[in-house]
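Question thread 4412

I'm putting together a teaching handout and wanted feedback from people who do this every day. The idea is simple: show students a protein as raw sequence, then show them the structure tokens that encode its fold, then repeat with a second protein so they can compare. Below is the first pair exactly as I plan to print it.
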Amino acid sequence: MGFLGFIKGFSSVYRAKPRIRVYPSFCQYGYCHIQCRTFSHFKDHDDSVLPVLIVGAGPVGLVLSILLTKLGVKCSVLEKSKSFSHHPQAHFINNRSMEVFRKLDGLAEEIQRSQPPVDLWRKFVYCTSLTGPVLGSVDHMQPQDFEKVVSPVSVAHFSQYKLIGLLLKKLEDLNFHICKPEGLNGEPFRGGELLMGYECVKINATGQSVNVTASHLKEGKYTERNISCNILVGTDGAGSTIRKLAGIELRGEKDLQKLVSVHFLSRDLGQYLLNERPGMLFFIFNTEAIGVLVAHDLMQGEFVLQMPFYPPQQSLDDFSFETCKHLILKLVGQELSDIDVIDIKPWVMHAEVAEKFVSCDNRIILVGDAAHRFPPAGGFGMNTGIQDAHNLAWKIAALVKGIAPSSILHTYETERRPIAIFNTALSVQNFRAAMAVPATLGLDPTVANSVHQTITDGVGSILPSGLQRAILDGIFTIGRAQLSEFLLNEKNLLGSSRLAKLRRLFEEGKSLQLQFPAEDLGFRYLEGALIPDSDGVGAQEQPTGRRKDYIPSSDPGSRLPHMNVCMLSNSSSEACISTLDLLPGDKVEFLLFIAPLEKSYHLAVAALKVAEEFKVSVKVCILWPTETIKGAEARSKTALAPWENYIDVAEAKKSSDSSSWWSMCQMTEKGAILVRPDEHIAWRAKSGLDDDPILEMKSIFSAILKV
């Protein structure tokens, strides 16, 4: 299916708006429901109503709670589990997410210190066993990935449960309290609580608030508790209860693949791979077993093995701890004495996006996997969710602080849903690329899935279950015979041809990719809380499934380009920071970039005046060419008086032939760039303004803030 065909699967608009609908619940209470009515204003004066309630304490929910707390918005988090899982799950953190983490009080630096050295995870290795012949390897790191030219921070490899541990520490530093049901005595939630063991079972959205009923087990009995909030955010994962209670459907491709995930420890295996063939992912194909091994930490010997799973002919009982240990040894290729299987979980790979992200008059919002479910190929799931939270946080804060009306929240869907659809398509393409490797070796997964479907739903469905299982096992055994040493070697004509084709696949970048810089940093919002250029918006590029370099852009909706700049001050030392660091993480503040020109100063004064009327903060950044910084501060002080919310900076070029700021942005120095609190460009003037700057800035802020 091509990209445009894939997108069609998401194009149907959800129009039905029932007053009351009832949906089955996955809790023992039988049924949960939601009642939607319109609301007239944000209820911020009632202490019994929590401004924001977040349901789901995965990485996305925790990041959102930190961002909101830093912005001064009271929030609490519900998590249905009584404790946090130690199953590693997601592990790749892309550039943009690491940039977000830089604003969370040193989180990015902590991750970089704690993660394994990059040389231990930069490669994907393809082999017949972990100790046997290597079919090929792909290095996913390029020199520019470490030069910090396009971003102030590099990607990271860090297991999800470790990330959650760091996020919880950040919340505790912000005076958040982690509570269990037995530790609460019915007092109202004031914000700053993470409530473990609470499951949302009912939602009633009235004209003034969202009333949430949560159940918890206390002293052996299930008890319900009611919580009122102004905004309910569902960050509760792919099987989101909030999404189901809100009656929001998913659109896309279901059941791309069923797998079993085996979490295990083996320091011996870790040491062997560390010394002999380090990598992040190991794709193992032999006559006895097939699997993908994720090396979460070679030094600690922590792994997750992913294996295809074909129910109902196979059941989870077929993957006992002993069976999994046996399969691991088959894939390793030699005996290991220290294999410790920790956990075994089935899961299903989907490629779906919610038909809407915001519902009930902007009161109920879906974020992260609750809003979109991707194949894990490329690591877009958690990263897209983190960037969802980053987009949403400042908008909620703007609403709570009276800067913007509730319609600002709908721009979250307008902006993020197209990104989710694009990333879904890209993830599917990358998953298909991963499947190209076994197909090249004579093991086409689409054939295996077709055979399984025929046995399950076609003519084979009339056969006894035991016979179905035997047929499936027999066909898979015949398929794996394509991987025998007799066939898969350079002396065999067919084997030699397949190996040559496999090498070309790796060389041409047509196998599974890890990094997508152009998409990670270059994604762009085409409409929403921004003002497109007057010459129109260019068409969105189709995903190619290949790595493409990021090209800096100042187009409205784009992430602000990174450049190192030196702050000019009266002190003898000049601190150099990224342009991204000029925006704070603890206030709703816009940033206006100008050059030190008379007309640009007039525009800046107009922006500061208008921002005061709109009750929003704006900081002006005057960007000076390196050769003209003498007297910069005095000149800006005179031009902007009596306003003081400005900063003078100079370009910190790495070399004399480096592009200037305005050249990199493909603008003249007469232009101006207005940046949102989430570091995305809200508006720009490529070569200055000819109209009244006051009227222009009023129009700009009105359009962005939806006032």
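The second pair follows. I'd like the answer to focus on this one:
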Amino acid sequence: MDFEPVSIGNDVVEFEVGDSAGEDGGAGTGLDLGLGGRVERPPSAGAGDTSGSDGDPGLEPCEGMEFHSEQAARTFYNSYARRIGFGTRVSVYQRSRRDGSVVCRQVVCSREGFRRGGGEGKSKKRRRTVTRVGCKAQMTVKKRSSGKWAVSKFVEEHNHELVPPDKVHCLRSHRHVPGPARSLIDTLQAAGMGPSGVMSVLIKESGGVNNVGFTKIDCQNYMSSSRQRTLGSGGQLVLDYLKQRQAADPGFFCAVQGDFDNLAGNIFWADANSRKNYAYFGDTVNFDTSYRMNRYRPVLFGCALLLNESESSFIWLFQTWLDAMSGSHPVSITIDQDGIIRSAVAQVLPGTRHRFCRWNVFREAQEKLSDVYCSNPNFETEFQRCVNVPETIEDFELCWESLLERCGLRNNEWLQLMYNARQKWVPVFLRDTFFGEMSMMQGKDSINSYFDGYINASTSFQVLIRQYENAIACRHEKEIKSDYETLNTAPVLKTPSPMEKQAANVYTRKIFKKFQGELVETLAYPATIIKDMESEAVYRVAKFGEDHKANFVKVDVFRKKACCSCQMFEFSGIMCRHILAVFRVTNVLTLPPDYILKRWTRNAKSESLLDDYMVGFTSNPQESFTARYENLRIKAIKYVEDGAESIHSYTVAMDALQIAAEKVAASKKHGFGLKQKTLIHGCQSQSRCTEQDEKIRELTSELANASLQCEEYQRKLLAVLKDVEEQKLKILVKVQNMRLNLKG
């Protein structure tokens, strides 16, 4: 056979997989596309006569060993590499000059050669890890005239350390999702399970993470590609549905990114109720990712279909969502640890405090620490208590160190990684920011329940439209039922406190139960004053019998303002038992208005809030650019659809559009006339404004007098309180003396 000379470098130019036959050969080089020696093990791959069986895992390569096909040879060498502890990749090949088929193939160690660096003056986007060290280990096979492939060269020695058996599954050439695993993944994905849950099942079924044969990233990539393959061509149905909703509802918001016809774009929509709800409850947002690896991503105040989960897609999603919500940023947002989502949130919501979803961390712990969970049944409970229970940073640090020491996990890489990010997910580091969380030990209150039973991985576009409407209707019905129960049934009061009665009439049923629990607990939490200043005081509050676990409350009695070291109100918006205990001893009988968050009350959805916030829903379409743009866009869509129905309607529409364009241009040119009319209208109302200003001055004067009277009252009341305290001390002294006399 004749071969052309060829210069073989570290870079490669072509990758082919085939069983082509040929007698004469030409030369070429093979392209490494990141698939390297990743081998699909076909049932037909078998050994030749010389080797006996190329599928036998106990055999080692040797010159002269024969295989039925090139694929069988590569499969055998990759199996050998897994057993020894190194990865493989396809290197150079030679072609037949007669028919162009491959007649010689070289499979090398994945660390063969050296990666070519960039030329001078070329800036690299990122520095890649050095993995190639010039290893010479390889196996070359050539095609014989009989059609079989034989080993013509085998180099066994490596110039680097081999990978131990418990880590060999991380090598790229050995990360393979086999057929049975794919079937199981498809089934679990169709049931709505994400990659973390799928991997947990696979680890349990295979007897350990080392036996799975691939990583979570491989599972995630397979599920993502499977979703892309099954999306189908029903996207236009969703787009048509959204157009119909826009035409029928002026408050319906929809945006499309990219080329939707080719299923390469993303869609976001939010109906009028979602946008209104954000005005009431948009201070904290939960961006749930449980459906991310299925097919659809529900968002708390809207819905999105993301067909391209890149960083730019998430940036577009958050920016579009903010546009739909009048540009109002939330105080806090809960996300998962995904680096792409974290980067997008940091860019679009730089002033928003973001944390990781704690329950996603616990779920990932089941995968990363599966061996610990199996060997120590109590570890899960201890781990969650270590995260949820501590009330101070010092307590958490001690608890964490103790847990690592008891379980021998001090060198665990995943736990070290999560500890380094503790300020993003451990509650004690986040309590100074409002997240609306009622309890540290509560289960995950996920938005999944919004779509559970309606949408999963197997839902088609046609069914999606119908099920989306059903889910919205069901949730609306539940809200109506909850509101009815709150308004028409009275909760059972447990104390004679006026504050409890007030809370029962103000809060929703769920929030009242939480508040009631805190109020009842004050009976076991005595408050002791430790610092008394002229206008403020500091109290020490601890549960009876647990003086070592004390919280400190700083209170201004006259202004009825207090703050506690536990920061429960800042975190959840509910008064803690410590402040309530101080209010009890300072005779604060009702909840001050500053400590009743409107979002937790029966009247949370007040229309007055919308007047200042949701400009898109105002009755006057000229109040804001957003409202004007939205109204014009809706009219324009309807205009285009009607005008395109026939040639005649198209001609009429174009003529009318030309006339309208000329009028708009004229109005822009002579816009000053509108300002003059506005000025005249302002002069007519000037007299009314003068009367209002006079009344405002009178009320301001009365308010100043009332404030002076209040200050005098405060001084007198403070003197009375001090007298009461002195009398209490005198009584205590007398009682103590009487006890001593009785004992004597």
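Top answer:
Good format. For the second protein you could add a caption like this: Residues 249-450 form one domain. The chain has a mean pLDDT of 75.
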